[in-house]
Specification:
Elements (H helix, E strand, L loop, with lengths): L1 E10 L2 E11 L4 E5 L6 H8 L7 E6 L2 E2 L5 H11 E5 L10 H11 L4 H14 L15 H13 L5 E5 L7 H17 L3 E6 L2 H4 L4 E6 L2 E4 L2
Parallel strand pairs: 3-8, 3-9, 6-7, 7-8
Antiparallel strand pairs: 1-2, 1-4, 4-5, 9-10
Helix pairs in contact: 3-4, 3-5, 4-5, 5-6
Length: 219
């Protein structure tokens, strides 16, 4: 589903990604471990086409992303990618269901379909009956569940998670990670988790370590 071949990214004279190669199949959940500042978020941005690689190629479902223009990349992210962030990025003025339904709204889905699928996605992450709850009424763990439901409501083929439990206590973090892994696999998506935490990476199918020298398989 996803193939990176010798991807390199530089900022000035500093090489952040050094000839990174990686393959992730549909239904596979992969962790990329690394210290803060090593380039984990940059790796996700390059995969998503938010930042261009300076060398190498990124191919998704057989299509090389570097050959797509900005409009095509935007459509691809909207229709086939899902994102989960450490800071949740849940919009405070929208209800839980409205936040979850945003990806479908951007696709111009019918309102009844948005409501139905948002409710089902919230139920899948243990938030049935909380459709009308506002973010201020939800705990950190519940907000991250909303973020996971939003990432998966559109049934994306690729899910990218950037330190998704960094703001949670250990118990909530464990529950959210188990939920996220289960939902990614249930949807048959290719999932990539970037994290500094060995515990967070433990439930993944494969683990890699990102360093200044490149990407090294740990399993």
């Amino acid at each position: 589903m996803l193939r990176l071949d010798k991807v390199t990214k530089r900022f000035g004279v500093r090489s952040v990604l050094n000839a990174v190669s990686l393959e992730v199949a549909a239904g596979e959940y992969v962790a990329v471990l690394g210290e803060s500042g090593i380039g984990k978020s940059t790796l996700l941005n390059v995969i998503a086409g938010l930042e261009p690689a300076d060398a190498g190629t990124v191919a998704f479902d057989g299509v090389e992303l570097t050959r797509l223009d900005d409009d095509a990349l935007t459509r691809l992210r909207r229709e086939r990618f899902g994102f989960v962030f450490q800071a949740f990025h849940v919009l405070p003025h929208l209800s839980a269901a409205q936040n979850v339904g945003l990806p479908l709204l951007l696709r111009h889905a019918p309102q009844d379909e948005i409501e139905r699928r948002a409710a089902a996605a919230l139920a899948a992450v243990g938030l049935a009956g909380r459709e009308s709850s506002m973010p201020r009424e939800l705990s950190g763990g519940e907000l991250q569940r909303v973020a996971i439901a939003r990432a998966l409501v559109g049934e994306p083929a690729l899910v990218l998670a950037d330190e998704p439990t960094g703001n949670l206590d250990p118990q909530n973090a464990r529950q959210v990670l188990e939920l996220f892994a289960g939902e990614v696999r249930a949807h048959g998506a290719a999932g990539i988790l970037v994290t500094h935490s060995e515990a967070a990476a433990a439930g993944c199918d494969r683990r890699y370590r990102l360093t200044a020298e490149g990407l090294t398989a740990l399993d």
